[in-house]
Amino acid sequence: MKNQIGRPRPRTLAPRLSRRQFLTGTTATAAGLALLGRGPAVLGQQVRELQVWHTEVEPQTVKTVQEGSIAEFERRFPGFKVRQQPLAWGDLNTKLLAAIAAGSPPDLTHLNPFMTASLYTKGLLRPMDELIRALGEKDIHEATQKLQYFDGRYYGVTHAMGGIYIAERRDLREQKGLKPPQTYADLVDLAAALTEEGTRYGLTMPGEKLYIGFSFPAEWLASNGGSWVDPTTWRPRLASRAMVETLQFLRRLNPFMPPSWSGQKYLDTLAALATGKVAMAYLSGARTIGYVERYAPEGMRDPEHFQPMFRPHGPSGQTGVSALDGENWTVFSQSK
Q1: What are the domain boundaries of the chain?
Q2: With helix as H, strand as E and coil as C, how does 212-235 read?
Q3: Is 163-325 assigned to CATH 1.10.238.10?
Q4: 322: nearest Cα among 134, 161, 119
Q5: Cβ distance 62 to 69 under 8 Å?
Q6: Interstrand relation of 322-331 and 157-163 (parallel, antiparallel or unpaired)
Q7: What is the helix (H) or strand (E) element at residue 91, kind and residue range?
């Protein structure tokens, strides 16, 4: 799964190189597509369609990708037609599993590193060493360079990276005279203090399988000195102390979350934070900034009101663990 990082230095919300900026710089996406299309079509050759799935769901970004990267590729390789499919991360996970089961995955797709590793073990991915050489191996950030590197070959290239954190309404916490939480118990107490019945809940998180079934449990267990499985036997540690304490923490936290949180998608949680329905969003990244700028009330779109917050640690842990979000492009072995 994603690399894990310890507690970094505090900083305010600040923009990073976004997926949108990356994708609008057409060279990288066109280079990825060029791995599939080797050259222009000869006169009369049938046009081949390439299916490209990505997680840029904002309409203006979809338009930019179509008019930028895709248009450039189709000009350079007239024997190919690119059809893009924008999907939210939770939808991508579900649709991708179905497509793989049906034997018809996309030609090129966004993935997360833990998803890439799983698909590699199943023999479903095509090596991308040629693309890595074309882009320049040393030009890929060292933190993500080898996340898709297995048995001496590359099976993906990172297109976006960033840290994951809790986003909070800093002003509400400071009005209560409370400090950022250091432990699971602190987070429960803070969520309770910021909950106002019928008006606002303390915290929310997406209930999509991608998060609640994969990345969140791994982070919670790592933050509590544990892990999903025994490293020797690979058997699940369902009765471990770290697991039991983590489940107790989540049970205590649940009353201060919206009753419908398990049905919420990632972007729903960001909108809830920006509009004041919750005081904290457990999963946040650079996209949070856009939601604050778009939906938060005038005069509140600043670090005095919205602030990133470090993940806390459990009673058996020493440091809260976040994920290094190193999302990548990957090509399937069945790709055209």
Answers
A1: 4-161+327-331, 163-325
A2: HHHHHHHHHHHHCCCCCECCCCCC
A3: no
A4: 161
A5: no
A6: antiparallel
A7: helix 89-101
The pLDDT assigned to 336 comes to 65
* Shared fold status for 4-161+327-331 and 163-325: yes
Give yes or no for a contact between 311 and 319, defined as CB atoms under 8 angstroms apart. Answer: no
Question: Is the Cβ–Cβ distance between 32 and 72 less than 8 Å?
Answer: no
Tell me what the mean pLDDT of segment 20-26 comes to. Answer: 40
- Rounded to the nearest 5 degrees, what angle is found at the Cα of 15, between the Cα atoms of 11 and 17? 125
Task: Name the DSSP letter for residue 137.
Answer: G
Residues 240, 321: Cα–Cα separation, whole Å: 18
C-alpha to C-alpha distance for 220 and 311, rounded to whole angstroms: 9
Structure token digits, residue 80: 């190919």
Question: What does the pLDDT look like over 191-229, one tens digit per residue?
Answer: 999 999 889 999 999 998 888 888 899 999 999 999 988
For residue 249 the two structure tokens come to 């923490």
Q: Give buried/exposed letters for 32-58 (b at 16+ CB in 10 A, else e).
A: bbbbbbeeeeeeeeeeeebbbbbbbee
pLDDT tier, 167 (very low <50, low <70, confident <90, very high otherwise): very high
Residue 40, pLDDT score: 47
Output the pLDDT for position 35: 57
Q: Give the tokens for residue 48.
A: 């081949």
| Superfamily in which the 4-161+327-331 domain is placed by CATH | Periplasmic binding protein-like II (3.40.190.10)
DSSP state of 200: B
pLDDT at 285 exceeding the cut of 50 = yes
pTM of the predicted protein model: 0.75
Inter-residue contact 283 to 211 (CB < 8 Å): yes
Residue % of the chain over a pLDDT of 90: 60
Helices and strands in the chain: count of H runs, count of E runs: 14, 11
CB 98 within 8 A of CB 106: no
